[in-house]
């Protein structure tokens, strides 16, 4: 990494131009902390910046200070480790990887190089999360996580065919991981007590899960998980933390409710938290000002440990 990167714009390379890659590219191009100097995807495309179909030409390039990785997760580990060992900070999409061994390789490389590293958990800097994290809930008695999908993958992810397979995809890794991260942040690291999944056969017998249930514990706090897909019903995301002083419910990512014993009451929020703000936090981390509002590889590894128990116990 350049010696003057703390003072100048950070030269960013982007690997993977799917839904998240293109979204972050649009934000990064206009971000004052970054200059997008290279982008890569395995398919031919025209992102409006210097482009290659070879990701190695980004993660190993001498004119790149930091890399954002938005490929399917099976490729995260090799790309992130190469980038870190080449002196580049890394901002990676979640999940961190698709195996604990790969996640450990990524964490080891980040630890050994000491370079800035981050995982793009969308809830890390949301105003709703900051509100809950900064409040006095009393003693936390439990957490409930409920998600449901009429279809999986969701419509906007239809071109990401890997999401329908159990090797890399499924809503446990793709969506439940966000709420595992949130629980880890507010309550503490999770350990599985009992977890199970039901898989879809899919067209070739390797479809992703259609149901996931679990009891985990964060210290002594029970965390109940219920997730289903391919059903007649609305799409729903719900995370509830039950405290003795007050309880909070986060619904559909951005709607926060609170109760001190009566009915749920809506909480007025500022609406903060986005790809722009997380890129800002990543830039600050590169310049030596790490924030608790941006998940790092260590947090991503803890989430991976919890998420993979759903699949590992079935194998």
From TrEMBL:
Which GO molecular function annotations are given, in alphabetical order? Answer: nucleotide binding; oxidoreductase activity
Query: What Pfam families does this protein map onto?
Result: GFO_IDH_MocA, GFO_IDH_MocA_C3
UniProt xrefs under SUPFAM superfamilies: Glyceraldehyde-3-phosphate dehydrogenase-like, C-terminal domain, NAD(P)-binding Rossmann-fold domains
The keyword Transport is annotated on this UniProt entry: no
Report the residue ranges that make up the GFO/IDH/MocA-like oxidoreductase domain in this protein. 132-247
Coiled coil stretches, renumbered: none
Q: Which UniProt keywords apply?
A: Oxidoreductase
The Gfo/Idh/MocA-like oxidoreductase N-terminal domain sits at: 10-120
Stored InterPro entries: Gfo/Idh/MocA-like_OxRdtase_N, Gfo/Idh/MocA_oxidrdct_glycsds, GFO_IDH_MocA-like_dom, NAD(P)-bd_dom_sf
The record ties this protein, via PANTHER family, to: BCDNA.GH03377
Name recorded for this polypeptide? Oxidoreductase
């Amino acid at each position: 990494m350049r010696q003057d990167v703390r003072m100048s714009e950070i030269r960013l390379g982007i690997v993977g131009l799917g839904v998240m890659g293109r979204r972050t590219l649009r934000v990064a191009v206009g971000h004052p902390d970054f200059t997008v100097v290279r982008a890569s995807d395995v398919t031919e495309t025209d992102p409006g910046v210097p482009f290659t179909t070879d990701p190695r030409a980004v993660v190993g390039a001498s004119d790149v200070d930091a890399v954002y990785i938005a490929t399917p997760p099976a490729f995260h580990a090799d790309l992130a480790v190469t980038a870190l060992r080449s002196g580049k900070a890394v901002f990676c999409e979640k999940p961190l990887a698709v195996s604990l061994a790969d996640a450990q390789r990524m964490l080891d490389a980040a630890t050994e190089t000491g370079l800035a590293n981050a995982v793009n958990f969308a809830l890390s800097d949301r105003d709703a999360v900051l509100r809950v994290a900064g409040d006095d809930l009393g003693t936390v008695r439990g957490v409930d996580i409920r998600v449901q999908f009429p279809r999986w993958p969701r419509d906007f992810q239809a071109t990401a065919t890997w999401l329908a397979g159990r090797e890399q995809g499924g809503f446990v890794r793709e969506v439940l991981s966000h709420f595992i991260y949130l629980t880890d942040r507010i309550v503490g690291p999770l350990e599985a007590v009992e977890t199970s999944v039901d898989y879809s056969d899919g067209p070739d017998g390797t479809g992703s899960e259609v149901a996931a249930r679990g009891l985990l514990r964060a210290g002594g706090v029970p965390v109940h998980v219920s997730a289903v897909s391919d059903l007649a019903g609305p799409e729903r995301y719900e995370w509830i933390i039950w405290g003795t002083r007050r309880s909070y419910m986060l619904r559909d990512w951005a709607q926060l409710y609170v109760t001190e014993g009566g009915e749920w009451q809506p909480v007025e929020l500022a609406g903060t938290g986005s790809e722009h703000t997380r890129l800002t936090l990543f830039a600050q981390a590169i310049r030596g000002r790490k924030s608790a509002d941006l998940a790092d590889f260590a947090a991503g590894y803890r989430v991976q440990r919890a998420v993979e128990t759903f699949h590992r116990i079935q194998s």
